[in-house]
Amino acid sequence: MNVKKVLEEYKEGNLSADEAEKQLRLDYIQTIENHTLFDKSRFNRKGIPEIVFGEGKSPVKTAEIACRAESDIVLISRASPEHYSAVHDRIPEARYAEDAKMIIIGEFPEPTGLIGILAAGTSDIQYAEEARIVAAAMGVRSITSYDVGIAAFHRFLDPLKNMLDENVDAIIVAAGMEGALASVVSSFSNVPVIGLPTAVGYGFGGEGETALRSMLQSCSLGIAAVNIGNGVGAGAFAAMISLRCRRPHDEL
Amino acid sequence: MNVKKVLEEYKEGNLSADEAEKQLRLDYIQTIENHTLFDKSRFNRKGIPEIVFGEGKSPVKTAEIACRAESDIVLISRASPEHYSAVHDRIPEARYAEDAKMIIIGEFPEPTGLIGILAAGTSDIQYAEEARIVAAAMGVRSITSYDVGIAAFHRFLDPLKNMLDENVDAIIVAAGMEGALASVVSSFSNVPVIGLPTAVGYGFGGEGETALRSMLQSCSLGIAAVNIGNGVGAGAFAAMISLRCRRPHDEL
Amino acid sequence: MNVKKVLEEYKEGNLSADEAEKQLRLDYIQTIENHTLFDKSRFNRKGIPEIVFGEGKSPVKTAEIACRAESDIVLISRASPEHYSAVHDRIPEARYAEDAKMIIIGEFPEPTGLIGILAAGTSDIQYAEEARIVAAAMGVRSITSYDVGIAAFHRFLDPLKNMLDENVDAIIVAAGMEGALASVVSSFSNVPVIGLPTAVGYGFGGEGETALRSMLQSCSLGIAAVNIGNGVGAGAFAAMISLRCRRPHDEL
Amino acid sequence: MNVKKVLEEYKEGNLSADEAEKQLRLDYIQTIENHTLFDKSRFNRKGIPEIVFGEGKSPVKTAEIACRAESDIVLISRASPEHYSAVHDRIPEARYAEDAKMIIIGEFPEPTGLIGILAAGTSDIQYAEEARIVAAAMGVRSITSYDVGIAAFHRFLDPLKNMLDENVDAIIVAAGMEGALASVVSSFSNVPVIGLPTAVGYGFGGEGETALRSMLQSCSLGIAAVNIGNGVGAGAFAAMISLRCRRPHDEL
Amino acid sequence: MNVKKVLEEYKEGNLSADEAEKQLRLDYIQTIENHTLFDKSRFNRKGIPEIVFGEGKSPVKTAEIACRAESDIVLISRASPEHYSAVHDRIPEARYAEDAKMIIIGEFPEPTGLIGILAAGTSDIQYAEEARIVAAAMGVRSITSYDVGIAAFHRFLDPLKNMLDENVDAIIVAAGMEGALASVVSSFSNVPVIGLPTAVGYGFGGEGETALRSMLQSCSLGIAAVNIGNGVGAGAFAAMISLRCRRPHDEL
Amino acid sequence: MNVKKVLEEYKEGNLSADEAEKQLRLDYIQTIENHTLFDKSRFNRKGIPEIVFGEGKSPVKTAEIACRAESDIVLISRASPEHYSAVHDRIPEARYAEDAKMIIIGEFPEPTGLIGILAAGTSDIQYAEEARIVAAAMGVRSITSYDVGIAAFHRFLDPLKNMLDENVDAIIVAAGMEGALASVVSSFSNVPVIGLPTAVGYGFGGEGETALRSMLQSCSLGIAAVNIGNGVGAGAFAAMISLRCRRPHDEL
Amino acid sequence: MNVKKVLEEYKEGNLSADEAEKQLRLDYIQTIENHTLFDKSRFNRKGIPEIVFGEGKSPVKTAEIACRAESDIVLISRASPEHYSAVHDRIPEARYAEDAKMIIIGEFPEPTGLIGILAAGTSDIQYAEEARIVAAAMGVRSITSYDVGIAAFHRFLDPLKNMLDENVDAIIVAAGMEGALASVVSSFSNVPVIGLPTAVGYGFGGEGETALRSMLQSCSLGIAAVNIGNGVGAGAFAAMISLRCRRPHDEL
Amino acid sequence: MNVKKVLEEYKEGNLSADEAEKQLRLDYIQTIENHTLFDKSRFNRKGIPEIVFGEGKSPVKTAEIACRAESDIVLISRASPEHYSAVHDRIPEARYAEDAKMIIIGEFPEPTGLIGILAAGTSDIQYAEEARIVAAAMGVRSITSYDVGIAAFHRFLDPLKNMLDENVDAIIVAAGMEGALASVVSSFSNVPVIGLPTAVGYGFGGEGETALRSMLQSCSLGIAAVNIGNGVGAGAFAAMISLRCRRPHDEL
Q1: Distance from CA of B189 to the nearest CA of C (A)
Q2: DSSP sequence for F10-53
Q3: A Pfam family for this UniProt protein (chains A, B, C, D, E, F, G, H) (predicted)?
Q4: In a shared domain, residues C127 and C212
């Protein structure tokens, strides 16, 4: 431990007061990562694994990054089969979650949290699955129900009731098009709803912007949103809520 | 009648064939308003009264225009009390519909059509009322239900069921914020839904654009939209549908 | 039938009042799809067939969905020849409408309704055809006239006159570029005009947004718009109007 | 209780099975607000008080709405001193929170939850205070620290450390301009961060859109955002998280 | 004339070659306004008078600028009656064109050019009049026809025919809303059409952007556009065309 | 000739006055293309050849359209070598202008007009060449100077001086990036400048929108703009000006 | 000095090693403002005075903030005469720079730096003056030349030559409209050009966005931009460059 | 030297005064590139090498341009390996900087300037390297530190301290996503910060626009921005600052 050594050296007269001070100041910079704000145990309780964005990286480079990672769990998002093949060659235990387009390395913890995930259409499933896997990697189980958009309104009532009865701590709603499902779910629920707009749609406002706007502009209180297609962010945010709710507060 | 006169003159030898043709050709331009495309009876069946946009016009100028109008029914939209006062001075039978901010001159026909109008919030009522009055002026009665947004979801189910049971020919949904009510109503209905986005909201997408986008991007089939705040257009469009549905087709 | 069974059981004393009530309440959720709002006969009169969006789905997956569909008529929109080939392998009676890029499964009903469809340019035809086929699947015949944009103004006057003389119940105007055709047609007509903006154009505002804006901002009353390229929505909306106009109101 | 009465009547033979079923089906609609999805106790645990948006409503109308409210706690947001004066005349116990521009009616519950609220600049305080009061009305105490933007970076480190040491369940970051504070706080924290962009700034992107985008586009995981200026929504969302974390799960 | 003087001085030995060269080089900068590119006679044939933008300037300051102007003709655009009053106090011969909101100082030349100006609605007249006055100040007469929008289609056919028969050299079309009039006029004409979009409209795209986009995106060849509300620019551009057409080319 | 025949028949008593009138009215529609507004000789003086937009059309379909065209001159814009090959197979005299990506069929008239075309960068040349060829097809010669952007400011001064000395009737300025060249050229010239923004640039505003905005927002009077990349429109517009300037007015 | 005291106490045995370390770690947070990154002398060399944004603050509140300020020089930007009056009452030596709408408190240092400031139009002067005063407060003199836009191109050549001859270290170009002046100045100069777009203009892109885009999209290298209307930021940035250029590097 | 020759000829009577003047005027145009504004030595001190934008140019064409260049140093940006291969064939000493996607021809000068370059993520490195190479070509060395985004906040403190201690004259911050790093670095520094937004991100605002807006909207003074992805511009701008700071002022 640096600080104590400096103190010792100073006490023993090996360092002048000026030199000791300078040494300690330099230490500010060098040890700022040990700063209470960054302390390991707090960071670890945040529990988000290392996540690499695969899109735009070559399979070879992605595999290299995966090998270098020091974290127990590594997720590679937006990964193609080619990415997986390159990673699998070097890390045989790597698994590929096709729906989420994610490569998973490492074993997930026993789930202690519980959230719900609804996806409005089949094209929203990829983002919902991203969220589910990130949450799982953080120790949070998800009750999922996909293809439950409001056009066939009654389809989502049963799954939603089930989630509420199971006492989920948050509900992620992945929806493109007009994204109205988030508002409707929130008007029926007493848990925080995380809007996850997806780039599903066509024509004017079809790249997910309409869904995002709807979630931000919702008449119903109890909604916050992540960016379009940010399944990773939605999963991490919901899992943080659930872990906080399920763990004794003196452990936080 | 021009054409016959020309024919007569030609027959009687007062006009050469060339002159007659030229006369008739000129007549094309002069009488193009008598053209079958524009013929009076068809135009009249369209039945839209003369509508003056009051906003931005001075009360005095508005009153002048109202006096000059040759139509039996004249509506002045976006009219302030000052507009009304100036109009009323010169046309004592003019009435002021405060909620719709409309001045009404002339008697409305007996209603033969029927539509429904839903407004999501209290601030949407002005536009809903604009639509109701325009429809009324065209001979279409409206069943209205206001302040029925999806945040208190159950509130609009009864009114909607009533409209469907009464067999309305179209439903106008006036909504701001995320405008999800239009999608939800359409998913429950078998009549054309006319989305009327309103400039209600705040922050990003709060000037009605989110509501408009939602209505255009709806997952539910059976919706078309008018521009933000275009209550006049929504009312006229819905009324045209209902009149067409209610009148014997040989009268169309 | 659930409800009657519960009544029976209750009457016979097999269920207490509390248990019967609970059973009936649960039934609310389970049978909400039998709810009068959703009742089959009303839904069926809406008459919109099952429509699958093919774009972005693999041919194999699309064929699977088509096989699973329970509807008599199934349409697959934005379908490539590859989609068709995969579907045709499993459903030999499937047909491919090349202009509309649609796969059609099932026989269409005898037409009872009538609408008009105008397309401004050759590139707008795909969307016009989408609308025509959806309407046909709902039992509505279309009078079509394509490549009649306002640059060669006189070209659309004859077809329009024909549509009006044939007494169409609504006119769909598919147009890209500045989309002015919708306004012009509406100024000449006494039927509801449904603006169908298409992603035809170039440079600033060329993805169909200019056409959409023009249709929303039209000086002429009697226009509502669907989203850019939403031929399916335009066809369904226009057909709903025509069916409502042509059928005896006591059947609605 | 409707259902039981129908059961009784049926059992006693006053109703036929058909009539009873019809009665019960109608009851679906009438009692859908008693549906488990809407059940009072669950809704009440959501605990969000009635909140009226004062802006754009006349003082007189606002006072009327306040009188009619059936909720124990009523908040009127975006309220001017004139609004307050009109409300106070009729409800003498109403209080005015000047910083938040909110009128408060009713007593707040003992706080059981705890959140943190940071505001980057003095102009962000109004929105932070909106959030604080909504949370307080829901039984959640806030540790606040205002005017701590990143331009004088070191200013927010102490307050943030304090919030983390006090074990807040969520941190709201109200920020305009480039909104970078939310990212920075999240990179230092292990609790969910709720981005509250404010319409503070100038020139290109100065209406809060830059702050909103920054919060959606953050490099740091653990952030979700509400709309620009939506202090009410941020407060309600954060309070819902904290209540869920602090209450025994069998009470939820 | 500088150059000759330098030549003289050099010849007479009063200047060394070096000094003469330096003098002449300095002269490059000082006399660049005499440069053939800027030569007076060419600039004068451009014939655009001095135009001051009054909006946002105080009446007093505006009057000062008007007094200082060295041009024979001075126009002050976007001028209020207050501006006029201040200018008139100091320049009694100044006139106020109320429709155009323009103050005019100086006598206009005898018109030698001829253009047409159409305005779609009454609110477009201000911009059309701006154009007319600028053209008049440049010696170009305008045939004008206002309130001739396409909603009442037939209204503009006669005026347009008249303009074409009178052989105008260009037609300015001032239009807001969907701006379709420019396309329609161009499809009927064989002269250059200058689109002058105006900030007339409402809701989405109502600040003139829809009209501008329509004019840029027109299906009809032969249109160019100026910025929204730029009546001054449209008038100057059209007048430049007409002057060029009407004057013998050896005078250009 | 229809009209005369009707007159004849009427005169001879084969038609009643009513029947003759009806016949003539029908004739309005049928002969509206002979209307003076559309009269052939005027349309021909407009002189714009038939132009087919090749992009997005298959080579085969493009060749078919080219064969069907009745115009003496046909241009196919945005044509690839594949387009050319298909056209050339069926129309051996077709030529390919590679720089402009245009296929040319037919002989151009002797030039009677004269315009200037400046292109700021090498990537702007394609659009400048489009303009040049369209103008040539209309009988207007172009003085061109390419790669003369303002970054190397002095490069365009000589070419511009040459154009002005040659007495061009209009100058097209094709420019991407910040598009400042149009303003600079206009400040140096006394001829109408047609801004042709191109989709050249990068990052924010790089798709040509910055160039378009600059041309609309120019401080210099005497500029109008066409849409981004609309070389065809710029060429046609400039050529119409020049033809009008060069031809005796009694021929117009 | 904290650190030395701790060292002393530790040496003297008043603190254990653990306590000393904890004290020093706490000190990290408390003294992070003494961190070398923030060290006073470096910060002071940055030399930017305290600047208060007056707009939207009441005169009374502004005066209070001015009194509380500890800096030798305080600037209040976007200040009205009312602001000044309130400040002057409490700080009699405060001065008001009317053109810049700035209140100045304190004496400016002797200028050691030198920059140039060009403003394209009279409406740009306010922002140019903001920049000039901020630079002056930092010890940098400005050579200014206003109303030198490119429409009268030759007007800015002399002033620019003068600035370059005086060897300015940076040139700020304040321009609205199409903002082309920045590109033109940069193409003529060998010093860094700071683009200061202003909200001057009209119609599409008239709020300064066109000028901003032009400066970002410039063909000429050597330009960077600040936000629209950010005269304060432009002045501070340019002054930082000049101070760095003019001071001996060992003083930096 | 032209001018002297004319003077001579005039003095000797070989030229009349008129002819001499005309000759000298023509000389204005021909020699404007020798104008002091453009004088070679000043331009050379600007020291920016010739930079060719490779993207969108064929390898063959790019090689040709490289051969034709007269500059000692030529850089080809956005160059692919195919570009390099074609250039290398003709210019064997050409080198390829893979990270920057740049081809380099010629030897760089000994560095006399010094700047710092930070890149937030690995995807920002390309743009940072572009800047580094352009600066190197101008004689300015860069201290670089890549992958130091604020999500792992502490990572950039050491590199930044190092840059400040080394006394860099400017710091370029390349960042995508929310671009907050630029604000944070500026709040810690006393040197000009040049924001270089990159098109890194996803969903709403992910093409670099959020980063650009953040840099323009920064709370911290001392930042100016270049366009998204404009590494070349950032490098040239920063290098111009450093060269100016490091060279004796009498050499400028």
Answers
A1: 7
A2: HHTTSS-HHHHHHHHHHHHHHTGGGSGGG-HHHHHHH-PPEEEE
A3: AIRC
A4: yes
Which residues of B have a CB under 8 Å from any CB of D?
123, 153-154, 157-158, 161, 202-206
Instruction: For C237, name the nearest residue in chain B, comparing CA atoms only.
Output: B222
Q: What is the CA radius of gyration of chain H?
A: 23
| d(CA D186, nearest CA chain A) in Å | 11
Question: What distance in Å separates residue D38's CA from the closest CA in chain C?
Answer: 12
Of B154-168, E82-96, F57-71, G79-93, the range with the lowest mean pLDDT is B154-168
**Which of A80-89, A195-204, B131-140, H183-192 has the least mean pLDDT?**
H183-192
**Count of B-C CB contacts under 8 Å:** 115
Statement to judge: residues H131 and H218 lie in one domain: yes
Question: Which pTM value belongs to this model?
Answer: 0.86
Instruction: Quote the minimal CA–CA distance from G153 to chain F in Å.
Output: 7
CATH number at residue E206: 3.40.50.1970
**How many CA atoms, within 13 angstroms, populate the side-chain half-sphere of residue G109?**
16
Look at chain G and report how many structural domains it folds into. 2
A127 and A49 housed in the same domain: no
Domain co-membership, B51 together with B125: no
Contact B150 A184 (CB under 8 A): yes
Q: Are residues G120 and G235 in the same domain?
A: yes
User: Residue C176 and residue C195: Cα distance in Å, rounded?
Assistant: 10
Question: Is the domain of A125 the same as that of A224?
Answer: yes
CB < 8 Å to G17, chain A: 4, 7-8
D182 within some domain: yes
Per-residue confidence of chain D (252 residues) as pLDDT tens digits? Answer: 356 777 788 888 888 876 776 666 544 434 333 333 333 333 344 567 888 888 888 899 889 888 877 678 899 999 999 999 999 999 999 999 999 999 999 999 999 999 999 999 888 999 999 999 999 999 999 999 997 776 655 567 778 878 887 889 999 999 999 999 999 888 878 789 999 999 998 899 888 999 999 999 998 889 999 999 999 999 999 999 999 888 765 554
To the nearest whole Å, the CA of H161 is away from the closest chain F CA by 31
Query: Tokens standing for F220?
Result: 């210099």
Say which of D32, D197, D208 has its CB closest to residue B157.
D32
The arrangement of strands across the sheet holding H50-53 comes to: H50-53, H74-77, H102-105, H95-97
Residues of A in contact with H158 (CB under 8 A): 29-30
A53 & A171 share domain: no
Nearest residue in chain D measured CA to CA from A244: D245
Are E and B touching by the rule of 3+ CB pairs within 8 Å? yes
Inspect the interface and report whether the beta carbons of E237 and F249 lie closer than 8 Å: no
| Within a domain: H4 | no
Asked if the Cβ–Cβ distance from C227 to B216 is below 8 Å, we say: yes
Distance separating alpha carbons of residues G189 and C244, to the nearest angstrom: 72
Question: Looking at this predicted complex, what is its ipTM?
Answer: 0.83
Distances (CA, A) of D128 to D93, D114, D123, F146: 24, 15, 10, 57
The residue segments making up the domain with residue E66 are: 11-105
pLDDT the model gives residue B35? 33
Q: Which residue of A has its CA nearest to B204?
A: A213
Kindly state the tokens that stand for B59: 């009360």
In whole numbers, what is the pLDDT of chain C averaged over residues? 84
Residue B231 within a domain: yes
| Of residues C160, C164, C233, nearest to B221 (C-beta) | C233
Looking at residue A10, its pLDDT comes to 82
Q: Which of H1, H16, H23, H24 is the best residue to mutate to test the E interface, defined by the most E CB atoms within 10 Å of its own CB?
A: H24
Residue C7 pLDDT: 76
> What stretches in chain H show pLDDT beneath 70?
1-3, 21-47, 70, 150-155, 248-252
State mean pLDDT over E69-86.
90
Torsion of CA A2, A8, A11, A14, to 10 degrees: -80
**For residues B13 and B17, what is the distance between their CA atoms, to the nearest angstrom?**
9
* Bridge partners, residue D143, by sequence: D116
| Residue that finishes a domain, picked among E79, E105, E131 | E105
Q: Among H57, H87, H105, identify where a domain stops.
A: H105
What was the pLDDT predicted at D1?
A: 37
